[in-house]
């Protein structure tokens, strides 16, 4: 590796990323239906059994309740999804919806009517309280 | 000593052209195969890795030459020695790669290569920045001790890395049977990059898949279990520095808070996900949970839908 090769490689890196963008590859994922959300959660979390799911109004996030006391939070990341399994997550409801702490730096926001958001938050707490076994096996 | 070229340097133009070709295929077949931000992160990690490689290269070569003094045999530059070095280096790669998935210290470097949720030729270039720091070069030292000249070993190792480029693609389904039986292929390596429980910690091969078959780590790709790529806890964004260092940061935090020396060592050298109280997921617990779920069977065909919010009384029943 010499400096010409290094400079050439860096130029190629930027060019290829630019071409990927110009070809409009990737795109923004959306979660279309609760059934989709349940399937994504079951795919990504080994052993997870979805009971039901709530998707937010613009499809940019979903909450999936499992049958064993945990919940899965799904959000799109480019053309893929980020899925986090949580127990008893901290949440906050506001006019724009429900904000849930996932352990990542920024909480995930589900866009929902405020009343729905508050009810969903209460259900998160109830789910955690209900689950006394906390068994992950 | 012949002046051997660096195969990776020679291959760079081909890498660029093939990534470009695969992007054009993706444009017409499935745009989600590439994501511009992910591609940029992968390629920047590849670029940084070559820089890190140059910085550490001198030291690794000096160490290799030092070890070579104590060689058991004098091995020259005849072509067949290259062939034998290639095969043995690939075995050393298998051992290195298996350790890279089973020992968190090595995983902290190798996880970079797995941190994309995409599987395309740009993923191949997503390489570590911290390989020297994590001591990955130790796995090649036996070759110098046997007597293979350092220049020869680094040359065949470069060829090995170049081989592994083309297998990072979804464009190729299966190669001819005889080829799939002996060589590492896109199909075998898709399994390696998958997070499906069935596929975790499988197919560590570099060039020859026979090592996995020999040592019991082989898993064939199945059409009814399509690979989902990435890591168990996928990165929250496309930040290059996070991708390069996140597991080192994780080790640092864990070791800092560890309750005992035993826990400290476990966090560094245990398998990824090890914790003193077993509260975190390792690939074993994930596989076990998946297995249990398989055995509970398919009695889950109940309505999975509600976009309204049921009250707490509708909280899901707990399975036994
Ligand atoms: Zn690997
Ligand atoms: Zn790979």
From TrEMBL, chain A:
Protein name per Swiss-Prot or TrEMBL: Uncharacterized protein
From TrEMBL, chain B:
UniProt membrane topology term: Multi-pass membrane protein
A GO molecular-function descriptor: glyceryl-ether monooxygenase activity
Domain Fatty acid hydroxylase positions: 82-217
Region (Disordered), start-end ranges: 276-320
GO biological process, alphabetically ordered: lipid biosynthetic process; membrane lipid metabolic process
GO annotation, cellular component aspect: endomembrane system; membrane
One protein family per Pfam: FA_hydroxylase
Location in the cell: Endomembrane system
Ranges of compositional bias, category Basic and acidic residues: 278-298
Keyword Oxidoreductase listed: yes
Keyword NAD among record annotations: no
UniProt keywords, alphabetically: Lipid metabolism, Membrane, Oxidoreductase, Transmembrane, Transmembrane helix
Membrane-spanning ranges: 12-28, 40-66, 78-96, 143-166
InterPro entries noted in UniProt: Fatty_acid_hydroxylase, Sterol_desaturase/TMEM195
Coiled coil: none
Database matches in PANTHER family: ALKYLGLYCEROL MONOOXYGENASE, STEROL DESATURASE-RELATED PROTEIN
Name of the molecule in the record: Sterol desaturase family protein
